[in-house]
Design a protein that fits this description.
18% of the residues lie in helices and 12% in strands. It has 13 helices and 17 strands. It has a 5-stranded mixed β-barrel. The protein has a 5-stranded antiparallel β-sheet with strand order 10-11-12-13-14, with no helix packed on it.
Length: 628
């Protein structure tokens, strides 16, 4: 055995006690500067903090991370070099009950200044729920951290470990908990309060300076595991295994393989905004009892091929308004007994099969509705002309609001008054130049108050009209352009007879016999080309607008170009256009609104930019009943 003096481990064990004054270790080893009682004076003019030796931390073999030592902590250690006392090692923290906080200009206390404390970690001052759908919890930060010890005349052990929930996260969680959350079909559920009921000494707590908390609570019959983020986002597992998860901002679950969920009881899902589901394959829903769907507005179902509905019992279609069935092909109603009750208010043609399967032809024509309903649908993209037109950058699809399946021409009304601002008999009106405020006034007249809806309508009409300037579709196409855009209607053999006239003839050929327009000879294709801020197109759409506004836009189509009417018609289209139901989706969904307006997603990027710009314009988003 070596008995030489100063041989490490054989020259005596010298221990010490002191106070941590600095933990910003330039080597980032977790070392701390400690003012050691008996070895260092309290007078910092003799031994300042930056002259204290660095003490190494002794870490447990199961943990290589830094221990949570901070300024002001009382610590215990020993000298690795014995009586030479030049290499201190910090073994642990000594909890206590401090009764005073000494000034920072003396030793044996937290030396940090007010400047140091402004950049030090600290818990938030408060958390609050905004009450607006989709908004995260609002975090109010504390202006400055506090010197340690922060709480006098009480143990330095975490309050949560001592069953003292005064001014802790437990009270914060209770304040934020949501109650009486409604569920579909009636009833409600509430977010449970924390099951915290710790008893000392069974709750192991890690509480960080910025407000993060980890609890492993072994209190008999009250066992819990709790992970809490300073924002209030938390996971807590209660004594009976109840799992409470709360996320105070966005949440993302990314699964690269299968996801299996089993619920042995009820499953309640309440969402204050949109629910969007997209499947790359099939969506299978199987219910052993009833399926109840309740919509505050429209229910829209669109399929790429067959729509099949089967019932083993009676099937009932009930409406408090009209019911319209429209088909491009044969309409068949089949049953052992088939009846049609009086009061049909739309033309019907089809077959009704009787009990023996014998077809019975049905024909009903009511003068009030001389044509089928006006479906607002996407353009007929099986038409190569529409495909080519849609692909041209900066070019509007002339079927923005198509009535493409509307093959029969509509009739000119005889009972509608001349528009207040009527066009001349020659249908020539110079391009109207307007500004965005004309749409603002129209939205005010229509009592539209939702800021998002106003911003979206303004952005869409701005794009459709080229900045509220282009109020009529340009038809000045060259020979090559017609061949490329409308190959279905123009060939090298006939195209020359449709050019050189300022674009008057070709629209009647390309748009004839569809959208309610008459034959090419009627000239309807040119007469009812796109106009206004929403680019109203096709005689059928002009008739629908005419009936809604009680002005004869069919005889006087250029009236739809005047600024106020163009804006009013645009607002009307969003509210009541289409199949008479208008747009019924979210006005925050740029893609959905664009498809409603454009029939596709042409100009989506530019529309999105205009939407973001509109949201920053208070004159656009703010309803003003006096500005009409």
């Amino acid at each position: 055995m070596n008995t030489e003096p100063n041989y490490m481990g054989y020259d005596g064990f010298v221990w010490w006690m002191g106070v941590v004054e600095d933990r910003i270790d330039p080597l980032k080893l977790g070392r701390c500067r400690v003012r050691i009682a008996g070895a260092h004076t309290a007078d910092k003019s003799i031994i300042p903090t930056n002259a204290l030796p660095w003490a190494h931390l002794m870490l447990p073999v199961t943990d290589s991370s830094m221990l949570m030592v901070k300024e002001g902590d009382y610590v215990l250690g020993f000298y690795l070099d014995g009586a030479n006392a030049q290499h201190p090692v910090l073994m642990g923290i000594l909890p206590g009950i401090p009764d005073q906080l000494l000034p920072n200009n003396v030793g044996f206390t937290d030396p940090r200044t007010s400047t140091d404390l402004t950049s030090a970690p600290r818990p938030p001052a408060s958390l609050a729920v905004s009450g607006l759908a989709g908004e995260p919890v609002a975090i109010t930060e504390t202006a400055s951290a506090s010197r340690y010890p922060t709480n006098l005349n009480e143990p330095t052990i975490s309050r949560l470990a001592r069953n003292d929930s005064t001014e802790t996260i437990i009270a914060t969680k209770k304040t934020l908990a949501l109650k009486s959350i409604p569920i579909a079909g009636g009833g409600a559920f509430s977010e449970p309060d924390s099951p915290y009921a710790a008893t000392y000494p069974y709750n192991r707590v890690i509480e960080s300076e910025s407000g993060h908390v980890i609890e492993i609570d072994d209190t008999p019959t009250k066992e819990r595991i709790h992970i809490y983020h300073r924002s209030g986002t938390s996971i807590e597992i209660g004594p009976d295994g109840t799992y409470i998860s709360r996320v105070n901002s966005d949440k993302y679950d990314v699964i690269l393989s299968d996801n299996n969920i089993f619920v042995n009881g009820d499953c309640n899902l309440t969402v204050n905004k949109n629910i969007n589901m997209k499947s790359g394959a099939d969506l299978n829903i199987e219910v052993e009892n009833n399926v109840n769907i309740k919509a505050g507005k429209s229910v829209n179902i669109q399929t790429g091929t067959t729509l099949s509905m089967q019932s083993q019992g009676p099937s009932i279609l009930q409406s408090q308004d009209s019911v319209t069935v429209f088909s491009e092909g044969t309409t068949i109603l089949q049953g052992s007994t088939s009846q049609i009750q009086p009061g049909i208010t739309a033309p019907i043609s089809g077959l009704l099969l009787g009990a023996a399967g014998v077809p019975i032809k049905i024909t009903s024509v009511i003068a009030e509705h001389p044509t089928p309903p006006l479906p607002v649908d996407q353009p007929d993209m099986t038409d190569p002309g529409n495909q080519d037109l849609a692909a041209r950058p900066g070019t509007k699809v002339d079927l923005d609001h198509p009535v493409e399946r509307y093959t029969a021409p509509v009739e000119t009304p005889t009972d509608l008054p001349i528009p207040t601002v009527a066009n001349t008999a020659s249908n020539t009106v110079s391009t109207v130049v307007a500004t965005g405020d004309v749409m603002v006034r129209a939205m005010n007249r229509a009592n539209i108050q939702d800021p998002t809806q106003r911003a979206m309508m303004w952005a869409q009409t701005n794009h459709e009209s080229g900045g509220f300037k282009g109020t009529i579709e340009s038809t000045s196409y060259r020979r090559e352009t017609l061949l490329r855009i409308f190959p279905k209607y123009f060939t090298t053999e006939n195209v020359d007879q449709y050019v050189g006239d300022g674009g008057v003839k070709w629209p009647s050929r390309a748009y004839g016999n569809r959208m309610g327009n008459g034959t090419e000879a009627s000239g309807d294709g040119y007469t009812y080309r796109g106009r206004g801020f929403i680019q109203l197109t096709g005689k059928a759409n002009y008739l629908l607008a005419a009936k809604s506004f009680k002005q004869d836009f069919v005889t006087y189509p250029d009236a739809t170009r005047t600024p106020d009417l163009a804006a009013d018609i645009a607002v009307w289209f969003f509210q009541k256009g289409g199949r008479g139901s208008g747009y019924r989706g979210s006005y925050g969904d740029i893609l959905s609104v664009t498809k409603f307006v454009n029939g596709g997603d042409i100009g989506l990027t530019e529309r999105a930019k205009l939407f973001e710009t509109a949201k920053t314009k208070s004159e656009v988003t703010t309803y003003n009943a006096t500005l009409i």
